[in-house]
Write a structure and sequence with these properties.
Layout: H1 3-10, H2 14-30, E1 35-39, E2 42-47, E3 50-57, E4 62-66, E5 78-79, E6 86-90, H3 98-110
Antiparallel strand pairs: 1-2, 2-3, 3-4, 4-6, 5-6
Helix pairs in contact: 1-2, 2-3
């Protein structure tokens, strides 16, 4: 696990830490080529400079966010924001379905919108893969 991600997780309450540790291990396993860094104060994984997945502690849950998740056509992911992102929220590590998360991570690699260049394109998203 990335040291900055570990530092982020270690600051959380025990159940939230367990959720985040589980998610980080799954993401690292499924996307070993991804670069992980703290971005906008929470862990985010990038493929070729493009954000694909990250998580953050919200007031009442941990949100697992897929930047292109709205295109995954997965019923358990909820559209989020005005672009193509979707998320799922967890209040317990027992809620994490590792098969679902693994499948979503495969889709995160294969289905990407170009967030890296969204500013340059004045808010327009283009499909990468």
């Amino acid at each position: 696990m990335n040291k900055d991600t570990k530092t982020y997780n270690d600051k959380l309450e025990p159940e939230d830490k367990k959720i985040c540790d589980t998610l980080a291990r799954l993401i690292d396993k499924m996307l070993p080529e991804a670069e992980c860094k703290i971005w906008h104060a929470h862990p985010v994984w990038f493929l070729d400079g493009n954000p694909v997945v990250g998580y953050s502690k919200l007031k009442d849950a941990v949100r697992l966010l897929f930047w292109s998740g709205d295109s995954f056509e997965e019923p358990n992911l909820v559209s989020f924001g005005k672009f193509k992102s979707a998320d799922i929220r967890y209040t317990s590590a027992r809620q994490i379905n590792k098969d679902d998360v693994s499948r979503w991570l495969e889709k995160a690699r294969d289905i990407q919108w170009d967030y890296k260049n969204i500013v340059k394109r004045k808010g327009r998203l283009d499909r990468l893969k």
